[in-house]
Design brief:
The chain is an alpha/beta fold. The chain has one domain: Rossmann fold, CATH 3.40.50. The protein is 31% helix and 27% strand. It has five helices and seven strands, in the order E-H-E-H-E-E-H-H-E-E-E-H. Helix 1 crosses helix 5. The radius of gyration is 15 Å and the shape is globular. The mean pLDDT is 89.
C-alpha cells in the first residue's frame, strides 16, 4: 500500500466482510462532530461499509439504507448518535439546510451518502470515501481526508490496516 499522498488512502476490498471490517476500523475512530461523505454507485457497497462503521462506532441498532427516510439514527450506549443521511432525494441545498447538520454534529457523527447534492453546505473538515464496484466480491475504496481531524481518522484506519 504505497502512500502517494498522506491525505489519501486507496484500498482494495476482496469481500463484503472485508469492506465491513474496514468500516469497523473507521467507525472505531469516529467522534462527535466527525463527517464521512460516502460516494459510490448503487451496489458499490455503501450500506455494507456503513454497517461496519456503525458496528465499530458501537451502535446498538441495526443498519439499513435511509433512502426513503433521509436520515437514520444509530444509538450508542453512551447516548451519542451516529446519523446516516441519504441526500439522493434532496431537491436543493436549502432543503438540506432544514435538516440542521450542526445539531446532528453536536450529538454525534454523520455519514452522508450522495454528498454532492449538499456540496454548498458540507463542512470543509470531513473524510471523503468513494467505493467502486470492480466485480461481484471486489471493491476499490478511496479515502481523502480534508482537514486535521480527518487526517487523524485516516491515520487510525491506515494503522489498523498495518500500514
Amino acid at each position: 500500500m504505497p502512500i502517494l499522498d498522506v491525505h489519501m488512502l486507496e484500498f482494495f476490498s476482496r469481500s463484503p466482510e472485508q469492506t465491513r471490517r474496514i468500516g469497523m476500523r473507521l467507525g472505531a475512530a469516529l467522534k462527535r462532530g466527525d463527517v464521512v461523505c460516502l460516494q459510490g454507485d448503487l451496489g458499490a457497497g455503501k450500506t455494507t461499509f456503513t454497517q461496519g462503521i456503525a458496528q465499530g462506532w458501537g451502535s446498538l441498532d441495526a443498519v439499513s439504507s435511509p433512502t426513503f427516510i433521509l436520515v437514520n439514527q444509530y444509538r450508542r450506549a453512551d447516548g451519542a448518535t451516529l446519523f446516516h443521511m441519504d441526500a439522493y432525494r434532496l431537491a436543493s441545498a436549502p432543503e438540506a439546510e432544514e435538516l440542521d447538520l450542526d445539531a446532528m454534529l453536536a450529538e454525534g457523527a454523520l455519514i452522508i451518502e450522495w454528498p454532492e447534492r449538499l456540496s454548498e453546505i458540507l463542512p470543509a473538515e470531513r473524510l471523503d470515501a468513494r467505493l467502486d464496484y470492480l466485480s461481484e466480491e471486489h471493491r476499490q475504496m478511496n479515502f481523502h481526508a480534508r482537514g486535521k481531524r480527518s487526517d487523524q481518522i485516516l491515520n487510525s484506519v491506515r494503522q489498523a490496516l498495518g500500514g
